[in-house]
Amino acid sequence: MEIKVLGPGCANCKNTLKRIEQMVMEKGIAANFEKVEDMQEIIAYGVMSTPGVVIDGEVVHAGGVPAVDKIETWFSSTETN
After folding, report:
1. Minimal CB count within 10 Å: which of 14, 25, 28, 77?
2. Which member of 8, 9, 10, 68 is catalytic?
């Protein structure tokens, strides 16, 4: 699984990455993380409000730190336990 967090490196972006990493670890999901800070690349995804989250090429979130329960829905069908 490829996970990208899109944003300029602000506190919200860091918190988003931390929450996603924690959820992936708890669920035992194999994932590669990438932090995308290049604004042209962020805009190419159609994300106009950061942080944005892209999972396997699909934008699943944009703007603000996502709630833990929302993050959990992204991974509910990929659990390995």
Report:
1. 77
2. 10
The order of strands in the sheet holding 32-36 is 32-36, 2-6, 52-55, 58-62
Q: What is the pTM of this model?
A: 0.90
The angle that helices 68-75 and 11-27 make with each other, rounded to 10 degrees, is 50
What digits encode the pLDDT tens for the residues 7-53?
998 999 999 999 999 999 999 999 999 999 999 999 999 999 999 99
* Domain presence at residue 5: no
Residue 81 within a domain: no
Active-site entry in 3, 5, 6, 13: 13
- Total number of domains constituting the chain: 1
